[in-house]
TrEMBL record:
Keyword tags: Cell inner membrane, Cell membrane, Membrane, Transmembrane, Transmembrane helix, Transport
UniProt protein name: Iron ABC transporter permease
PROSITE patterns assigned to the protein according to its UniProt record, in alphabetical order: ABC_TM1 (PS50928)
Entry annotated with the keyword Cell membrane: yes
Membrane topology note: Multi-pass membrane protein
Annotated source species: Cellulomonas wangsupingiae
Presence of the UniProt keyword Transferase in the record: no
PANTHER family per UniProt: INNER MEMBRANE ABC TRANSPORTER PERMEASE PROTEIN YDCV (PTHR43357:SF4)
Residue intervals passing through the bilayer: 54-76, 88-110, 122-143, 176-204, 224-245, 275-298, 337-355, 367-392, 412-434, 455-477, 510-531
Length: 543
């Protein structure tokens, strides 16, 4: 049962829609036709998009690592006043809706923005900065979670033998953190390569990625063959990134029990490592993370008539041809996110429970690893492909005489598909950290399997489940790729409304889009603040 429910869910609402949309691009007149690969890759546009995708992902990953490693050290190995609040703040960008990230950076870089004079609007640099902004927390939490659990005796021995602090970092600490760094890098590369809303807002057609190109080919050119080819290419990249992340994560999870969370030391600015970490993190937090968000709030208060709350007042009435107001769309977003979160928590919790077991037979271990990798795929497969696949496959799911395409249920289901991997990655490390002998002792004392599950697994993972619930809710609240296809005109979500406002001319529409972005950012930030208080000490890298 614990395996059947998640597998059925993934098959019906992920594998089937993706296979349907890909199949329509490769099956012509009832026969398999792979000539589309040659046609699509013969276009210079395709190679330009693939090259831009790899370039943005590579540079974005390097930037996130360079800035994130000092942050991981400072926030997980050092102790100072306000560390918890700062941890919560640096996590906010990761769960911000991608549309909001794009709007925040665009408002900062356009003419009239704080950095408008630099000429970065609509450039490759702007996209990379936004990708680093979004993925900074992945590096901080993934690497920091392992860093705070490293046994300090190896470092102390090296220092006692006369090694400098920098040599200890280079020869002892960084090699020990290798699995966590590799895991973080592969995940950041994956997120950068599949970015949609951010790239669409900042780059448009000039700096598109494979993800945005799938959207353009599907919605504007109606070229399902090209979209199918690009979806397969993206899937290959995703599987490669997930394979690297999975191997690195497995090494990390095996290493975690070797040492408990070590007491963080106070920040010592006289130590070069601490001084560099403080300087780099301060510049990153103030210049890269806070500046776009603060500027977004400031710009939302600027109206054609001067400073005021006019843009927020406009959220109460529909703008132009929109059928609903932004406040009504926010209500729809919250209701849909609640449904998606509950569904994701059920499915993801069952997956984490099954994958956390360590069977003795090699075949069973391979099956468990395969299930883990399978449920990570929605993180990287194009949400556009999933959303459009829903439209073409959900007219009669499982042969039932119902058309789910006319129901708002599909939006919640699509958001749950995206949120399930986050639930798994948050709960799984905690379940794997449980000593198996605790379950064996409970069973020996006569506890039924259900009671063992309730008193051992659930009791330990309760805080992690609360954390997963919050992240799943935040991710569902801001999902845009699949929702842009599935949201009905009379029931759009807030990210869809923001994107539509940005596409309409006029200062009033732009101001309303800024105000709506602030509203959506505030909702997600509040959720993350609560989540951070539920974070289990020492388990900081559960992505």
């Amino acid at each position: 049962m614990a395996v059947a429910v998640p597998v059925l869910f993934l098959t019906v609402f992920f594998v089937w829609p993706v296979a349907e949309i890909v199949g329509r691009g490769f099956v012509l007149d009832g026969r398999l036709d792979l000539s589309g690969f040659g046609e699509v890759f013969a276009r210079p546009r395709t190679w330009r998009v693939v090259g831009q995708t790899l370039a943005q992902a590579t540079v974005g990953t390097l930037g996130a690592l360079v800035l994130g490693l000092p942050g991981a050290y400072l926030l997980h190995r050092c102790r100072f006043r306000g560390r918890g609040a700062l941890r919560a703040f640096v996590t906010v960008p990761f769960v911000l809706p991608t549309v909001v990230v794009g709007v925040a950076f665009r408002s900062l870089l356009v003419d009239g923005g704080l950095l408008g004079g630099l000429g970065l609007d609509g450039t490759f640099t702007a996209i990379v900065l936004a990708l680093v902004f979004f993925n900074y927390a992945v590096v901080v939490r993934t690497v920091g979670g392992m860093w705070e659990r490293l046994d300090p005796r190896a470092e102390q021995a090296a220092r006692a033998l006369g090694a400098s602090q920098w040599r200890v970092l280079r020869t002892v600490t960084l090699p020990a953190l290798g699995p966590a760094i590799a895991s973080a890098a592969s995940l950041v590369f994956l997120f950068c390569a599949t970015a949609f809303g951010t790239v669409l807002v900042l780059g448009g057609r000039r700096f598109g990625t494979v993800e945005t190109e799938i959207w353009i080919q599907t919605t504007q050119f109606l070229d399902l063959r090209a979209a199918a080819v690009l979806s397969v290419v993206q899937l290959v990249v995703v599987v490669g990134a997930l394979a690297v992340a999975g191997r690195a994560r497995a090494r990390t999870e095996r290493a975690l029990p070797l040492g408990g969370p070590e007491a963080a030391h106070p920040v010592r600015l006289r130590d070069p490592l601490d001084a560099v970490a403080v300087a780099v993190t301060a510049v990153t937090v103030l210049g890269l993370l806070a500046a776009p968000l603060v500027n977004l709030v400031v710009r939302s208060l600027r109206t054609p008539d001067g400073w005021g709350l006019g843009n927020y007042a406009a959220l109460a009435v529909p703008q132009d041809t929109l059928a609903v107001s932004a406040w009504q769309a926010a209500g729809t977003s919250v209701r849909t996110a609640v449904d998606a979160t509950l569904l994701a928590l059920l499915v993801g919790g069952l997956v984490a429970l099954v994958v956390s077991r360590r069977p003795r037979r090699n075949s069973a271990r391979r099956a468990v690893a395969g299930l883990d990798a399978l449920f990570m795929l929605p993180l990287g497969v194009s949400a556009v492909t999933v959303g459009f696949g829903f439209l073409v496959s959900m007219d009669a799911p499982l042969g039932l005489p119902i058309d789910l395409r006319t129901s708002g249920v599909l939006v919640a289901v699509a958001q749950a598909v995206v949120a399930v991997p986050l639930v798994v990655r948050t709960v799984l490390p905690v379940l794997r950290a449980i000593e198996p002998r605790q379950r064996e002792v409970a069973a020996t004392l006569g506890a039924a399997p259900g009671r063992v599950l309730r008193t051992v697994d659930l009791a330990v993972a309760l805080r992690a489940l609360g954390l997963a619930l919050g992240f799943a809710f935040a991710a569902s609240l801001g999902e845009f790729g699949a929702t842009s296809f599935l949201a009905r005109p009379q029931d759009p979500t807030l990210p869809v409304v923001i994107f539509r406002l940005l596409g309409r001319p006029g200062a009033e529409n732009y101001g309303a889009a800024l105000a709506a972005s602030v509203l959506l950012a505030a909702l997600t930030a509040a959720v993350v603040a609560v989540c951070e208080r539920l974070r289990r000490p020492g388990i900081g890298g559960a992505w």
